[in-house]
Design a protein that fits this description.
Blueprint lengths: L3 H19 L2 H10 L6 H10 L4 E6 L2 E2 L3 E2 L6 H10 L4 E5 L9 H9 L5 E4 L5 H10 L3 E5 L5 H13 L3 E6 L2 H7 L6 E5 L11 H6 L8 E5 L5 H9 L4 E4 L1 H4 L4 H9 L3
Parallel strand pairs: 1-4, 1-10, 4-5, 5-6, 6-7, 7-8, 8-9, 9-10
Antiparallel strand pairs: 2-3
Helix pairs in contact: 2-6, 4-5, 4-12, 6-7
The structure holds the ligand O=C(O)c1ccccc1NCC(=O)[C@H](O)[C@H](O)COP(=O)(O)O.
The ligand O=C(O)c1ccccc1NCC(=O)[C@H](O)[C@H](O)COP(=O)(O)O binds next to helix 1, strand 10 and helix 11.
Length: about 260
């Protein structure tokens, strides 16, 4: 239990137990089901790609365990609007408080500021959190294969699908990919960052591409910092990207998105 992922998952178990005491799952479910405002997340990525553009999932995060505080001037609504203006397909919003200084309000504010679909970026281990994601307004959830058994992932995917949400399943190695491929979702995120050691290598995506079957959409995640990084991925046929730090460190995150993907 000495790696950061194990520590985060411990925190999540406590958070879920506390949340259940504060508000029952059936009450949160009623709120989630009453929302009629789902935005197609996978669809938005495919639409961009069909237009010959990259499908960029632009992240909103203040801090991370590996980098500490990344952005001091942190206004989720302004950041979301800037991403929307500069060609993002979707948003990814950190809702974890303890390790990423995220929050539920960040998701609410970002989503209200634009019409882009939103991923709840958090460490989901329990149906309660999936239902809560929709109640907050999320259009997609993240399932991290390093954190979940295959049967758990399938259960959480079913809960998400019943609420109309898409799923991005995240893997870092071949074994996790095999587990992820048992899900229905077409969205397979290959995280270039090892969540236990923080080592980040773009070769992680490139090495695993050949193992992803046709019909799945690879999203390369983490460590895309320079236009050359994006170009390298495109040369190998990768068309969907999840990017955080490169945008969050820039004075205007949307301008940084434009420069990374559209300036040449
Ligand atoms: O980034 C971390 O330190 C981290 C630690 C433990 C679990 C997850 C972590 N990050 C989540 C991500 O993978 C990134 O937020 C995402 O892929 C964007 O990466 P980047 O463009 O490098 O900010």
């Amino acid at each position: 239990m000495n790696d950061i992922l194990a520590k985060i998952l411990d925190t999540k178990r406590t958070e879920v137990a506390t949340a259940r005491q504060m508000r029952s799952e059936s009450e949160v479910l009623r709120e989630a089901q009453s929302r009629q405002d789902i935005r197609g997340f996978a669809r938005a990525i495919e639409d961009k790609i069909a237009q010959g553009k990259p499908g960029v999932i632009a992240e909103i995060k203040r801090a991370s365990p590996s980098k500490g505080v990344i952005r001091e001037d942190f206004r989720p609504a302004d950041i979301a609007a800037s991403y929307a203006c500069h060609g993002a397909a979707c948003l990814s919003v950190l809702t974890d408080v303890q390790y990423f200084q995220g929050g539920y309000d960040h998701l609410r504010q970002a989503r209200a500021a634009c019409s882009l679909p939103v991923l709840r970026k958090d460490f989901l281990i329990d149906p309660y959190q999936v239902i809560h994601a929709r109640a907050l307004g999320a259009d997609c959830i993240l399932l991290i294969a390093a954190a979940l058994a295959p049967a758990q992932m399938r259960e959480l995917e079913t809960v998400a699908a019943d609420l109309g949400m898409d799923v991005l399943v995240e893997v870092h190695d071949r074994e996790e990919l095999d587990a992820a491929l048992s899900l229905n979702t077409p969205l397979v995120g290959i995280n270039n960052r090892n969540l236990r050691t923080f080592e980040t290598r773009l070769e992680t995506t490139l090495a695993m591409l050949k193992d992803v079957p046709a019909g799945k959409r690879v999203v390369t995640e983490s460590g895309i910092l320079l236009p050359e990084d994006a170009d390298r991925m495109r040369e190998y046929g990768v068309q969907a990207f999840l990017v955080g730090e490169a945008f969050m460190r820039a004075p205007d995150p949307g301008t940084a998105l434009h420069e990374l993907f559209f300036a040449r």
